[in-house]
Design brief:
This protein is of the alpha/beta class. The chain has 24 helices and eleven strands. The strands form three sheets. A five-stranded mixed sheet has the order 7-10-11-9-8. Strands 4-3-5-6 form a four-stranded parallel sheet, sandwiched between helices.
Length: 696
């Protein structure tokens, strides 16, 4: 057991503790592996879908057979998709240079056997390429001859790409071809003996544990793509993406749940799940009554049995698992079977879940949602660490850059960075305070400020940086601690360092020389301080000169308009408030419909509550492609919306392209600094007053 961060000294308790730790580490390893596989595949799903559409329409058995167009999807499958995956894998490890090396190297594996889809080979050779170039760059740090940087950088990528391409041709390609053959043979055995439905026993629990990415994208998709290349379709695309099992569970809750609140939430979840393809929406309903997991398992088994019996298949991945994507990827001869499979899965799952709901009483929906959020965080490699540093830093000297980081780097971190920058600039004008996404923290970061669930991702991005964790970005005590350490401790450390240097000088007999050096250093610092003051004065003048330009630019881009302000709203649930903000963004043409679901997903990952009664829900980093133009909406709830331990009276929905929204967020931060304006903002019924203050 853990008490106050210390282990229980009881021997048996400690032994049990070790077992728990081992299981946790193993689970985390699997989850991180799954996340990594998913990170290679998911950005390139669009290419797989393009392949699926081309195959569905133009292959020999498609809707509009066309020999010429059929060659396109063949080239996409053989060359484009493996190159994209290898490039993405290389980038994840070795950045842009790793991306180029990965793309070169995988061509060797492709040419070793052009008749085989080298997706699995790409998933090996891409990260290997990134690792190799990363090691090379690390080795060259501090040893790069001046004037030869570009020459060495270019030639190192080319030579390493060539060598790895040769390795891919001779070893990796043939080996992964053998692995794919074995896996495909295993699947064929299961199909021939009608045992494939048993896979559902693993799929459905894995989904609830967020391990589906490791299975679906690491195994199912490569096998399915190879099968589709030969047969024009594959049942493997259908195993995890079928919306029927989850739909049956949600319908059971909608009709038979005794808890009124949960029952009322189910219809909305049905729509999001069925048409939006966000299967995570039904996971809390499973966790409320864990025995209900039997329903989707049996429902999926029934569907897989039906698909296996009828020879149904999809021509490409149905991503997300929406009924719309599912049907669009159905082959021409499988359309009826695909629809019936969804119906069968829904009916079976609904029937079993209905019986189980009447037999048991589960937890509240809120408790289940919290567990889902925790599991989702762990699955994304951001598992909470009870021993993580709660606040503060261990070393305050030499700090130059502070980075506030959140999942997308769009809203939470931007407001946090702005507020802290404004707070500390008078005392520490030498500090650079910026914001970014947690996966793109710059290498020269000295301190990374993140929410506690993002600690592991931050450490992966900048292992050398100090990590400060907090719960919200505006009013967390950890920020006060950091401010004090950065404004008080450096001075003390500096004075102590001078004293130590002086003592060392006396002992070595070089006091005079060292004193002179210190005087020179002091003079340099004074000059630098004067220059910094001049810079700050110039910056202030420039800021005053460009204030009107910024205001007009904001108004021109219509980042916040009167129609985007809704005041005096009645209190609702957090989920409903986020939904309303997203729907308003859609209504005003800022985002596509899919962005709304991404906002809910973002909230499950890490709370967007900022402190001071302010929340800024926004989409995940993966949803940036659904943003049409930058926009912000404001929903005012005078009585507050429950965001966990605190209530938010102001809910800002954000959709940003680049940094176009940051000026307005900075202005909002300035308003929050004035307590009187903040309270007025929470209660005013005048949207013109709000616009006037923000555009002032």
């Amino acid at each position: 057991m853990f008490v106050s961060g210390k282990k229980d000294k009881d021997f048996s308790g400690g032994d049990q503790e070790q077992k728990v730790k081992v299981r946790f580490c193993m689970k985390n390893s699997v989850q991180r592996f799954g996340k990594f596989l998913s990170a290679m595949i998911m950005p390139n799903i669009g290419a797989l879908i393009a392949f699926g559409f081309l195959a569905a329409f133009f292959n020999g058995s498609g809707w509009i057979p066309h020999e010429g167009f059929a060659t396109i999807f063949s080239a996409i499958l053989v060359y484009l998709i493996p190159i994209l995956i290898a490039s993405t894998g290389g980038k994840l490890i070795g950045g842009e240079r790793g991306s180029i090396v990965g793309a070169i190297a995988v061509v060797g594996a492709i040419t070793s056997d052009p008749d085989t889809t080298m997706l699995m080979a790409a998933m090996i050779i891409g990260p290997l390429s990134g690792l190799c170039i990363k090691k090379f760059d690390k080795m060259m740090e501090g040893h790069m001859p001046a004037g030869f940087e570009m020459l060495i950088n270019n030639f190192s990528v080319g030579i390493m790409g060539m060598l790895l391409a040769m390795l891919g041709y001779l070893v990796i390609g043939p080996f992964m071809n053998l692995i794919l053959f074995v896996l495909t043979a295993g699947v064929n055995v299961l199909v021939e003996h009608s045992m494939l439905p048993l896979i559902a026993v693993f799929i459905e629990p894995a989904k609830v544990l967020f391990l589906n990415n490791a299975i679906n994208h690491g195994i199912f998709t490569p096998i399915a793509t190879a099968q589709a290349a030969e047969a024009g379709k594959s049942i493997m695309y259908m195993l995890e993406a079928n919306p029927g099992p989850g739909l049956g569970v949600l319908l059971a809750y909608m009709f038979f749940c005794e808890d009124k609140k949960t029952k009322q939430s189910a219809p909305g979840a049905v729509i999001i799940h069925l048409f939006g393809g966000i299967h995570e929406i039904y996971f809390p309903y499973i966790l409320m009554n864990p025995l209900v997991i039997v329903a989707p398992i049996v429902g999926n088994m029934a569907a897989i049995f039906w698909y296996n019996m009828t020879g149904a298949g999809l021509v490409g991945p149905a991503s997300p698992g929406s009924i719309l994507a599912y049907l669009m990827m159905a082959s021409r001869d499988s359309m009826v079977s695909v629809i019936l499979g969804v119906v069968i899965a829904t009916a079976v799952s609904f029937g079993i879940a209905s019986v189980l709901l009447r037999m048991s009483k589960g937890r509240s929906l809120e408790e289940a949602q919290e567990e889902v959020a925790s599991r989702k965080a762990q699955a994304k490699g951001i598992a909470q660490n009870p021993d993580a540093q709660a606040a503060g830093i261990t070393k305050a000297e030499g700090i130059k850059k502070i980075v506030f980081a959140c999942d997308a780097g769009m809203g939470s971190s931007a407001m946090g960075a702005t507020k802290f920058r404004n707070r500390i600039k008078a005392q520490r004008p030498d500090l650079t305070v910026i914001n970014t996404s947690v996966d793109n923290i710059p290498a020269d970061c000295d301190i990374a400020v993140v929410q506690i669930t993002l600690v592991e991702r931050a450490r992966k991005s900048v292992p050398q940086a100090q990590i400060v964790t907090l719960h919200n970005f505006l009013a967390d005590p950890a920020l006060d601690t950091l401010y004090e350490q950065l404004t008080v401790k450096p001075a003390a450390d500096q004075n102590r360092g001078i004293s130590e240097e002086s003592a060392a000088g006396e002992n070595s007999g070089t006091t005079e020389g060292q004193t002179t050096d210190r005087q020179e250093e002091t003079a340099d610092r004074q000059v630098e301080g004067t220059e910094q003051q001049d810079t700050d004065q110039k910056a202030g003048i420039q800021k005053e000169q460009t204030a009107d330009m910024a205001a007009s630019r904001t108004e021109k881009k219509q980042i916040l308009v009167k129609e985007g302000i809704r005041l005096n709203l009645h209190p609702v649930s957090k989920e409903r408030a986020i939904q309303a903000a997203g729907e308003l963004l859609v209504e005003l043409g800022y985002v596509g419909d899919a962005y709304v679901g991404a906002m809910q997903e973002r909230e499950k990952l890490v709370s967007t509550y900022m402190g001071m009664g302010v929340a800024i829900p926004h989409g995940t980093s993966q949803a940036k492609g659904t943003v049409k133009k930058t926009g912000i909406v404001l929903l005012q709830y005078p009585e507050g919306v429950d965001f966990g331990e605190e209530k938010a009276q102001l809910v800002f929905g954000i959709a940003g392209i680049g940094d176009e929204h940051l000026d307005l967020l900075s202005k909002i931060c300035e308003m929050l600094e004035d307590e009187e304006i903040l309270e007025t903002l929470k209660t005013t019924g005048d949207p013109d007053w709000i616009l006037e203050r923000l555009n002032a």
